[in-house]
Amino acid sequence: MRGTDRRAYAVAMAVVIAGYQLLPDGPWWTAAWQVGIGWAGTAAILAGARRLPWRDRLPWWCFALGIFANSSGIAVAVYAESVLGRVDLPTPADPLFLVLYPACALGLALLIRRREPGRNWTAMVDATTITTGLGLLAWVYVIEPAAQEAGMSLLGRAVQVAYPVGDLLLLAMLTRLLRAGGVRGASFWWLAGSFTAFLAGDTTWVVLGNLGDAGWALEEVLWFRRGIDMMFLTAFALAGLAALHLGARELARTAAPLPPRLGRLQLAALTGASLIAPAILAGQVASGRVTDGPAIVVGSTALFLLVVTRMAQLVRQVERQSRQVRELSRTDDLTGLPNRRAWNDELPRALERSRRDGAPVCVAVLDLDRFKQFNDSYGHPAGDRLLKEASAAWHSALREVDTLARYGGEEFTVLLPGADLASARAATERALAATPLGQTFSAGLALWDGTETSDELIARADAALYAAKGAGRDRIVAADPWPDVHMRRSQ
Questions:
Q1: Which residues touch 108 (CB under 8 Å, ≥6 apart)?
Q2: Phi, psi for residue 450 in degrees, rounded to 5
Q3: Given its phi and psi angles, is residue 328 left (phi above 0), alpha (psi -120 to 50 degrees) or beta?
Q4: Boundary residue ending a domain (292, 323, 354)
Q5: Do 366 and 316 sit in the same domain of this protein?
Q6: Most C-beta atoms within 10 A of its C-beta, which of 10, 326, 405, 471?
Q7: What is the number of domains present in the chain?
Q8: What backbone phi and psi angles, to 5 degrees, belong to 11?
Q9: Between 380-397 and 421-434, two packed helices, what is the crossing angle to 10 degrees?
Q10: How far apart are alpha carbons 249 and 49 in whole angstroms?
């Protein structure tokens, strides 16, 4: 649908919803108005779904079914009361009203599945925590009283209980959608606003029912009662607007799940949900009679376990990020090899193992020949590509036990444990032959003498490297041993 048509639909819905307050006071007038808006919202959803790929239409069809059934139930309810005299639950309209909850919950579940194919345990814990807290509130003040209401048939009590249970189901799926990753454009928020309006309307009726005489008095106020009805009308209209918006195409796009961090709004919602159980207990203690002790115990236990689970997720996330930071601090960004810090940690350990096992260990220092000239000729991106390709080629040519690290710039170091000078030279020559793009390197080799420090070993290899450079490059030179160990130590 074009933007002008979508705006025309939005303006028309706003006008007819506002005009609901001006209707004559008659059930048939209000029923026709509500059904008309509900069917218009259904038609808008179906029209919007037609523009989507086949695989993305099913969630919207579920939304259309729920809204069509719910709005049609209004006409059936008026007919049952005005013509058939059916006012006691269950009425013929209740099945239509109740279809809204499973149909829309299924649509939300399908949409979430499209957006996040994997399991997002963090979002599931958050949604379960909020739903559990509000579910305990609904049990104490709505579900349990409805299930025990005298003068009503068993089927009537079951239908009365089904409404708050349906609200909890819808709340759980809406919370899960809000915690999912993916695009959050206008269509996303229109859809979320639609289900929020449904829940707000149902919650208002529940609150009025628990206010006793004050609630009955408010229901007798025409503009107030119609204001509650307008919440549901707004829900019908917003669902249609969400489907017509071009952003509906992006709603089912797969995205990575959100990280398990807690924002301020999430923290406030989880805190509020967790405090519902003690708040109910405090209220009943203050009244002098704890009537829902078992439910409060079960709810408190469930909320406690959910909070512990959420904290464990956050701790694991912090630990994972800490490991990543440690790894990044020891890894060269360009080549992915160990950096100088990692090399300085690993070399002393390798020398200590060599001292303990009596096995030889060699170190090589490699430097790409004429790298500055290559950079000046082909540019820095080409130089970076050479460094990455060369390091990958050298790594493949060396032995699995060898450690190649980037020491700085175009200079690399190689740790060759268990290798004497001959085998170390052979491994380094394989790396030299594998150097890509027709480039070469110069290298200095040093065999550890069993007493020198890491810095002294590197210094000998570095001196051999400069000897290779001075001898014409593209070669490997083995370092001479220190002429006098005791003299070297005294310097």
A1: 59, 170, 173, 174, 176, 177, 195
A2: 90, -10
A3: alpha
A4: 323
A5: no
A6: 405
A7: 2
A8: -65, -45
A9: 140
A10: 9
The single residue listed with the structure tokens 């919440």 is: 231
For 174, the domain range is: 3-323
Q: How far apart are CA 362 and CA 450, in angstroms?
A: 11
Biggest alpha carbon–alpha carbon distance for the chain: 115
Let me know if residue 66 belongs to a domain: yes
Residues 109, 190, 270, 281, Cα dihedral to 10° = -90
Let me know if 477 is exposed, middle or buried by CB neighbors in 10 A (0-12, 13-18, 19+).
Answer: buried
Q: Which residues contact 458 (CB under 8 A, 6 or more apart)?
A: 347, 363, 365, 413, 446
Reduce the DSSP state of residue 415 to 3 states and report it.
Answer: strand
Domain boundary (267, 292, 323) is at 323
Same structural domain for residues 456 and 312?
no
What is the pLDDT tens value at each position of the chain, 491 positions in all?
556 778 888 999 999 999 998 988 888 889 999 999 999 999 999 999 998 988 889 999 999 999 999 999 999 998 888 887 777 778 888 999 999 999 999 999 999 888 887 777 888 888 888 999 988 988 888 888 888 877 778 888 888 889 999 999 999 999 988 887 777 888 999 999 999 999 999 888 888 877 778 878 888 888 888 899 999 999 999 999 999 988 888 888 877 666 666 678 888 888 888 898 999 889 889 888 888 888 889 989 998 998 888 888 878 877 887 777 777 778 888 888 998 888 888 899 999 999 998 899 999 999 999 998 888 888 888 999 999 999 999 999 999 899 999 998 899 999 999 999 999 999 999 999 999 988 999 999 999 998 899 999 999 999 999 999 999 999 999 998 765 443 344 33
Q: What is the pTM of this model?
A: 0.71
- Which residue do the tokens 């059930």 mark? 27
Return the active site residues: 410
Q: What is the CATH number of the domain that holds 429?
A: 3.30.70.270
Count CA within 13 A, CB hemisphere, residue 180. Answer: 28
Give me the residues paired with residue 446 across strands.
363
- Report the distance separating Cα 274 and Cα 271, nearest Å: 5
Q: Are residues 189 and 240 in the same domain?
A: yes
